[in-house]
Amino acid sequence: MDIIAVGIDVSKDRLDVAVHPGGEAFVVERNGAGLEQLTARLKQLAPTIVALEATGGFETIAAAAVGGAGLPIVVVNPAQVRAFAKALGQRAKTDPIDASVIAHFAAATRPEPRPLPDEATRFLSDLVTRRRQIVDMIGAERQREKRATSQHLRKSITRLIKALEKELVSVDTDIDDAVRSSPAWREAEDLLASVPGVGPIIARTLMAELPELGRLNRKQIAALAGLAPYTRQSGQWRGKSFIGGGRQAVRTVLFMGAMTARRHNPVLKAFFDRLVANGKPKLVCPDRRRPQAADHPQRHDQDENTMATRLTANTVAHPSRRFAASHPLPQGERGRQNGRRKSMSDRLKAEREAAAARRNLLTQDAIERTGITEEMIGELVTRFYGRVREDALLGPVFAIVQNWDEHLAKLRDFWSSVVLMSGRYHGSPMRAHVPLSLVGDHFDRWLDLFEQTAREVCPPPAAALFIDKARRIADSFEMASATIAGRIAAPRHVLRS
Questions:
Q1: Largest CB tally within 10 Å, which of 30, 327, 460, 474?
Q2: Predicted TM-score of the model (pTM)
């Protein structure tokens, strides 16, 4: 049975609509009256699928109107539609032709309709996009500041940078308010941030730019983000696997997270170390910009005695280095490359400064809401670990600690960083706990003692915050320990009453 597919080509002022099969076509204006006319006619047609292209935001209103009318809507990739048109031999390109091709594409491929992001999610996505734009502008202005020869120009650039930094703090505050206003978003952010290497910026970017996370399987979500390596093979030839497409903003933040996770996430660190030990150059391991070559299973199932294990980054120069040695860049191009590196450095510096400003705001907010102080943290840590050392189940585990004064000072720094975002702790607690072979009973007992102590030492708002953080930490450690042991563990304690 043929399906009825409707294709909509979106432009700034109008919507071209085509129906397949049948060839019916009509045009409506891209305004309130036009959208009402569009939904009325589509309801009469009762289409199986309504498809429109992503056009940089112009499609949002039309998609929301069609979806709000209860019609099956899907936003398709323009590159796929154009490739489909070429396959049909359709070289001409006009708005009515595009609408017809979109309808034909939807009828042929039958894309699965997905729920559109709600208004709150779109608002968060706009805020995250705006934050990224401001950070890019700050990096660009810092580059201009370094090249400015006039004092007057440097003052102008400095004023603009200060204004942009102020606006960046304002946008960060708006993002914080948006996330904190939704219990579901707070839960999602905390769950994402429980993964070592994932911070607030990465978590919020994933929530805004990848709302399908959690609804698709791991292969589908990797492909959607543009991180799935695609195999290239023909006959006896086996080519390298490469990633492609996807969502650039997601890949960008995940790259920075992978750099941190390689050092502090025990699962990814073990994976990275195994790849390097098998002879893979660090350039193509997961912490680099091109993770696809190392991620392909054919590339890290090599026998120890193969030639591949002896061809490492230390024994063979990377092709780009050999090419650079034999083809030196002109002076101007070398300067442009150095400028791009400096631009990246300025962007990272702006990110760090924005993160510091955001931490200060969050710290003040936490203090005002809960009354937590450094003295309270010290009392909680001292009393709690006094009980832990005397506990029959946990005492033997912590007997390995040699210097308790030093250990308690480190724990005070840890909890100060967790609840007040002071940034005083710089260690890797996951790395210290994973080798201890902890099981569920250990984490349950640890939480029982912690919650009891927190309720004794802290007022209710502060105790609630401490307990919430402790439960998420326990889940994170338990899941990491299970993964290292070859088991799969689900979070148990965040739902604890």
A1: 474
A2: 0.44
